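Good morning N.,

You mentioned wanting to compare the apo and holo forms, so I went ahead and generated the holo version with cytidine-5'-triphosphate. This is what I fed in:
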Amino acid sequence: LEGFFVPRVLAGRKVVLTAGPTFEAIDPVRGITNISSGKMGYALARACAQAGAEVVLVSGPVSLPVPAGVRRVTAGSALGMREQVFAALPGADVFIGVAAVADYRPLEVAEHKIKKSGETLEIALTPNPDILAEVAARQDAPFCVGFAAESRDLDAYAEGKRRRKGLPMLVGNLVSDGMGGDENTVVLYDDAGRHPLPRAPKAELAHGIVSHLARLLDGCRP
Ligand code: CTP
Ligand code: CA
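and this is what came out, ligand included:
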């Protein structure tokens, strides 16, 4: 959509997004992370800015340039990302959780490098808070959009997630279709059902997602 007119469907709106993976430290040189390029989240942040929104992108560790018109704040762990999200949230009309947040973190972070012993090593993990579910459950919740990358049974898992977290909209895809690459095949889920988008570059999908969410948003809060 380079050089084309982008309808300013989010003019006057504030959007907060998460993108990329999180990194959960085990010791000073190691950690647990998820596979996430950050490309979809960054493309979406850019599309929101082009649509006229004020955009705050809370990003896990990725090496991508900050999209024009976007304020990026960086986060490491899920707990750090949660803190940045809640700091950015006042005044937000829309929250989009694109990040691949680690579901667990090590219960304890070793102060020094763990030395190998040749024996089995067990690392106890404790659950991380669900940032999206927490935001969506707030009394003054913004319009919340979730993402779900599944390895199978996309419709059942994606729609289940949308309902469990109380989201008006969720974007689902199969990991085999999109991970790491520049294109993806996604399905949008909302109260009206499922809406598959044609396979497209992530930049283009981002505009499709923005126009769908803007329509729902305008319907919700005229
Ligand atoms: N999410 C989040 N915080 C977490 C976990 C997930 O904000 N701690 C958000 C993601 O950014 C995404 C959505 O929730 O928008 C779905 O994430 P996903 O990992 O697919 O779902 P989970 O609820 O964590 O369930 P599971 O990993 O067991 O499939
Ligand atoms: Ca998860």
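The two ends are 28 Å apart (CA to CA).

Happy to go through it together on a call whenever suits you.

Best,
F.
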